[in-house]
């Protein structure tokens, strides 16, 4: 398998991308990792110890974080993100990964690869960490701000298939994000989507409140992009605040520091359980190819895990399965 990696995208690129790819190359030697970017920036980081399954693919330009997405995709054909997307389109790669501009990546998915037949609006996913370590796949997280009930139905079907194919769950539980668990709760979109999901060929468990997401009340959480993006940023902000307060309190006095030393193994276990790096790698479901969004602040470890999830998606035939499922719809 071949995976094209936008080596220039992300807050810590290209070093984090190169180091993550080198670590992944040793873990999955069957994967050929194609680092797309400026050779003069990538080759010195690889050095003489470049793994045999890592290759540099030249790309002269970069899509910046503040570039307007559609304009950047159209006007920067030689940008690393665009080159990687075309490689998937032309069959030179089985998938692509990027930690770059999210809007541009979604635009590249639509403009370069196009939608899967039968899909109206692609959805951006993420695997949220949960207390049992299994995570909850949530979509959409911002690809489609103004969704229709039919879009949420498609997200539910794609998300359920993703968890079956990539995570091996035989019967994933699908929930609908809402302000209450009762079927009659929510706005008109939620109520209409509830009716569609009730009769869909999935294991629909009903409405799920935001407070229950991290306890894994479901395996797939469906929402519109507006609500999903707010949920994502609220969880990230809350986690950052809580861990910051804990660090502040546990270093505030000698007694606190001694207590922290005793509890350090416990804190490490909690930190590992909730570490976004392990869950990094969010596919854009609904486009005609496998595009995986890596977190913008990804370090080498997070990049390696994004590659891990991409390898699993390719191995389990995620995109062909989605194409077969929706092709006749």
Automatic annotation (TrEMBL):
Catalytic activity: a fatty acyl-[ACP] + phosphate = an acyl phosphate + holo-[ACP]
Biochemical pathway: Lipid metabolism; phospholipid metabolism
Keyword Lipid biosynthesis in record: yes
One GO BP annotation of this record: fatty acid biosynthetic process
GO CC annotation terms, alphabetical: cytoplasm
Superkingdom of origin: Bacteria
Gene3D superfamilies, alphabetized: Isopropylmalate Dehydrogenase
HAMAP family from the UniProt entry: PlsX (MF_00019)
PANTHER family reported for this sequence: FATTY ACID/PHOSPHOLIPID SYNTHESIS PROTEIN PLSX, PHOSPHATE ACYLTRANSFERASE
Protein name per UniProt: Phosphate acyltransferase
Source organism of the structure: Cohnella rhizosphaerae
């Amino acid at each position: 398998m071949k995976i094209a990696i936008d080596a220039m995208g992300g807050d810590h690129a290209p070093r984090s991308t190169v180091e993550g790819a080198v670590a992944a190359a040793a873990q999955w030697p069957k994967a050929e990792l194609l680092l797309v970017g400026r050779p003069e920036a990538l080759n010195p980081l690889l050095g003489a110890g470049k793994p045999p399954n890592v290759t540099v693919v030249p790309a002269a330009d970069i899509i910046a974080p503040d570039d307007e997405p559609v304009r950047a995709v159209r006007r920067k054909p030689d940008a690393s993100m665009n080159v990687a997307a075309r490689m998937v389109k032309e069959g030179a790669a089985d998938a692509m990964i990027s930690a770059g501009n999210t809007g541009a990546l979604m635009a590249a998915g639509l403009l370069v690869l196009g939608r899967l037949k039968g899909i109206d609006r692609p959805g951006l996913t993420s695997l949220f960490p949960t207390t049992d370590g299994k995570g909850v796949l949530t979509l959409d997280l911002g690809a489609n701000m103004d969704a229709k009930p039919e879009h949420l139905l498609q997200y539910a079907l794609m998300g359920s298939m993703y968890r079956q194919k990539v995570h091996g769950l035989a019967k994933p539980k699908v929930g609908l994000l809402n302000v209450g668990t009762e079927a009659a709760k929510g706005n008109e979109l939620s109520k209409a989507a509830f009716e569609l999901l009730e009769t869909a060929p999935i294991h629909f468990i009903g409405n799920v409140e935001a407070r229950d997401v991290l306890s894994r009340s479901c395996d797939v959480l469906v929402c519109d992009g507006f609500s999903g993006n707010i949920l994502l940023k609220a969880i990230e902000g809350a986690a950052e605040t809580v861990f910051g307060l804990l660090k502040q309190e546990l270093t505030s006095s000698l007694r606190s520091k001694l207590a922290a030393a005793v509890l350090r193994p416990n804190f490490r276990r909690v930190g590992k359980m909730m570490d976004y790096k392990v869950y990094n790698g969010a596919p854009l479901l609904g486009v005609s190819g496998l595009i995986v969004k890596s977190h913008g602040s990804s370090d080498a470890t997070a990049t390696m895990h994004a590659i891990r999830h991409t390898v699993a998606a390719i191995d389990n035939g995620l995109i062909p399965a989605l194409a077969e499922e929706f092709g006749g719809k």
